[in-house]
Amino acid sequence: QVQLVESGGGLVQAGGSLRLSCTTSGLFFSRYIMGWFRQAPGKEREFIAAISWSGDSTYDGDSVKGRFTMSRDNAKNTVYLQMNSLKPEDTAVYYCAARSLLRNVERPDEYDYWGQGTQVTVSS
Fold first, then answer.
1. How far apart are CA 46 and CA 38, in angstroms?
2. Per-residue pLDDT reduced to its tens digit, 47-61
């Protein structure tokens, strides 16, 4: 059974930082592209970042470029999202997801597995 479990969310003041983690089980982790998405109330799921199988390449969404960094540790079956300079508009539930193909990484409908999400709230 495939499981993706996010952690690290919480309440932070604007300008602060958080580091999210997503630990997986039940899949051959190093063969999966991993992505981070977020969804705020009343909004569509938004692409944040994706990372290649080895971690050599990352792909960032326009709204977080220069502030968020995605990384992975294949030995720990875990991906991370370092979030700096947080803004109130970053408030959302953050999800990690996994897929096998490196194409259209910004499209949530092309991911095979999803975590349950972790809430990030940024106060002004």
1. 5
2. 999 999 999 999 999
CA dihedral 32, 22, 75, 49 (to 10 degrees): 50
CA–CA distances in Å: residue 44 to residues 3, 36, 41, 59, 83: 23, 14, 8, 19, 20
Q: What is the CA radius of gyration of the chain?
A: 13
Q: Where are the alpha helices (DSSP H) in 1-124?
A: none
CA neighbor of 122 nearest in space, from 64, 79, 51, 80: 64
Give the tokens for residue 37: 């998405």
How confident is the model over 24-35, as a mean pLDDT? 96
pLDDT value at position 8? 98
